[in-house]
């Protein structure tokens, strides 16, 4: 089978590395042969691979960086909308789902000659519905909000590829976050950034502006070998129910992933493989917890000036099935000190910017400015829904993004805060590697620290940079 694993823009290389690690797992090798496509050298929106059908279960369970796992159904040349109908109607959809299940179809395109992608979407939807009606005598209903089954098509100038989505809800929705609207940084982007930093569980990790704890929770789950899909897969049973507030009806059902609603995955053999993958993961978790029995043993800590966000962080930590409570303090970033007995380590932060700005690291309602919804901010061409046109209306324009970035650059109070924070880094964090995710391309100058590396990334539609600063100890200065 052919898969395309979608990821946030800029994370194609870390994703390819992660897929290679997943493919080498003993329980994944037992599923069959995996062949991962060459690592992309330019933005592609994801990574392709060939693997057995069961790989969809392993990828949804284990990939921290993926947004979705798409299973390729067909690929063919096209010239007009009727070619799309002909291709889609020739596929045996009845072998994948039934007419009693709801359907959603999305179409994305790159240099397509077709005049209307809405019409292209309609033709593919009609082809699927007509096929099921002809074969079963009944047709599925369309549900663009909570569909049982998602079908995706991508058009290039000459080729159309049709996929069935095995993920359902986007994979950054882990199931532990309970604050709707409190996630300007998505979990899979945070995981990808951790990969770029090269941080390892044996090292100190500190976030002085931790907010509700996305970076630190992702890191702690990595250290404890907790799969990102652990809650959605039902590994913890009744001990960990997905958040009802953030994840809506599908997340509280027995089908946390899209593949669980597809007929081939309901076969006895696939169910046994799914149980085996979860059992193997739970064995790893139990072994790793012997190594890290207490939060302090993880060497992961944070701080934030906002008391409400510190409380949110603690709640998220517990829902993520992490031990005890996180090591976190309510403290101004300008007064933050390195964790005890930490001569050096990795600092990772996503400071407030634009309309989320509160001076001196304070974070109140700015965290609620963006909705926690993958439909709100498509991350790349494979996530932009053009079925109803609602997406393009919600997506910020290039001009508004420029204004957002200009606001950050021009705010004199924020510029002064950054100058003070840069000096604080020099004074208190010598020997540390500091990574900052920001939409402000002028950040190094405002900190008055020369970056050693900058990595382009996209936080939703917002173009960002991950800056790396190597802080020299005073004796090296």
| Category from helices, strands and their pairing | alpha/beta
Low-confidence residue ranges:
354-395
What proportion of the residues form beta strands (DSSP E)? 15-25%
Measured as a percent range, the helix fraction is 25-40%
| Radius of gyration using CA atoms only | 23 Å
Number of helices: 14
Give the averaged pLDDT, no decimals. 86
* Straight-line N-to-C gap: 56 Å
Order of helices and strands: EHHEEHEHEHEEHEHHHEHEEHHHEHEE
The count of strands amounts to 14
| Spatial order of strands in the largest sheet | 2-3-1-4-7-6-5
The main pleated sheet reads as: 7 strands, mixed
What is the molecular shape? globular
Question: What does this entry look like structurally?
Answer:
With 477 residues, the chain is α/β, with parallel strands linked by helices. Helices cover 34% and strands 17% of the residues. The chain starts with a strand and ends in a 7-residue tail after the last strand.
């Amino acid at each position: 089978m052919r898969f395309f694993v979608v990821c946030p823009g800029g994370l194609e290389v870390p994703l390819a590395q992660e897929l290679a690690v997943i493919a080498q797992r003993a329980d994944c090798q037992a599923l069959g042969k995996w062949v991962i496509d060459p690592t992309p050298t330019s933005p592609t929106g994801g990574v392709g691979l060939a693997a057995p059908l069961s790989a969809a279960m392993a990828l949804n369970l284990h990939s921290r960086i993926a947004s979705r796992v798409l299973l390729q159904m067909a690929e063919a040349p096209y010239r007009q909308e009727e070619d799309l109908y002909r291709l889609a109607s020739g596929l045996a959809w009845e072998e994948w789902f039934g007419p009693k299940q709801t359907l959603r179809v999305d179409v994305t395109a790159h240099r397509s000659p077709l005049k209307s992608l809405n019409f292209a979407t309609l033709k593919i939807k009609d082809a699927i519905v007509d096929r099921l009606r002809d074969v079963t005598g009944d047709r599925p209903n369309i549900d663009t909000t909570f569909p049982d089954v998602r079908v995706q098509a991508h058009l290039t100038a000459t080729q159309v590829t049709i996929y069935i989505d095995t993920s359902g809800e986007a994979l950054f929705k882990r199931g532990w976050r309970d604050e709707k609207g409190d996630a300007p940084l998505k979990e899979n982007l945070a995981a990808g950034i951790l990969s770029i930093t090269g941080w390892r569980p044996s090292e100190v990790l500190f976030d002085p502006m931790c907010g509700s704890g996305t970076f630190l929770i992702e890191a702690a789950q990595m250290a404890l070998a907790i799969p990102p899909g652990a809650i959605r897969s039902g590994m913890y049973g009744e001990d960990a129910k997905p958040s009802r507030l953030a994840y809506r009806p599908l997340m509280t059902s027995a089908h946390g992933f899209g593949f669980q609603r597809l007929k081939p995955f309901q076969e006895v053999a696939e169910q046994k493989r799914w149980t085996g993958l979860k059992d193997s993961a739970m064995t790893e978790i139990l072994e790793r917890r012997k190594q890290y029995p207490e939060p302090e043993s993880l060497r992961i800590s944070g701080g934030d000036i906002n008391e409400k966000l510190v409380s949110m962080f603690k709640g998220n930590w517990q829902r993520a099935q992490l031990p005890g409570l996180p090591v976190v303090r309510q403290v101004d970033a300008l007064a933050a000190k390195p964790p005890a007995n930490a001569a050096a380590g990795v600092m990772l932060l996503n400071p407030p910017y634009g309309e989320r700005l509160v001076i001196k690291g304070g974070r109140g309602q700015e965290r609620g400015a963006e909705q926690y919804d993958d439909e709100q901010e498509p991350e790349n061409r494979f996530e932009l829904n053009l079925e109803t046109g609602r997406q393009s209306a919600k997506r910020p324009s290039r001009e508004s993004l420029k204004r957002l970035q200009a606001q950050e650059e021009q705010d004199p109070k924020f510029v002064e805060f950054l100058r003070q924070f840069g000096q604080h880094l020099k004074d208190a964090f010598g020997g540390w590697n500091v990574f900052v995710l920001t939409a402000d391309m002028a950040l190094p100058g405002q900190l008055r620290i020369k970056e050693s590396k900058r990595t382009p990334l996209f936080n939703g539609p917002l173009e960002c940079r991950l800056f790396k600063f190597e802080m020299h100890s005073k004796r090296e200065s």
